[in-house]
# Entry
Amino acid sequence: MGNCQATQVTAAVVVQHPRKDGKVDKMYLPVQANEVMRSNPGHYVALVVESPNVSGNVVVKQLKLLKPTDMLHIGHVYRLITFEGF
# Structure
C-alpha cells in the first residue's frame, strides 16, 4: 500500500494572457470580469467558445466579449484581449 498516491483535481477559472509567453492565471472562485480587467488595464475579458467541426474534433474557436458585470465561472477558459492596433 505504500505506493498509493492521492491526486487532487481542482476546477478553476482560467484566464489566458495575450502575450506569447503563455501566462495563465487561475482563480478558484467565480469572479466578475471587471475585477480581472481592473488588474489588467487596457484589456477586456472574452470567453473562449469551442465548437466541433464536421469531423467532430473541437477546432473552431470563437471569442465572446464579456460585459464588466459578467461572472467568470469555474471550469471555463477566458482570454484577455486588447483593441490596440485595430
Observations:
- The chain has one domain: 13-81.
- Helices lie at 33-39.
- Residues 33-39 form the longest helix (7 residues).
- The first strand starts at residue 13 and ends at 16.
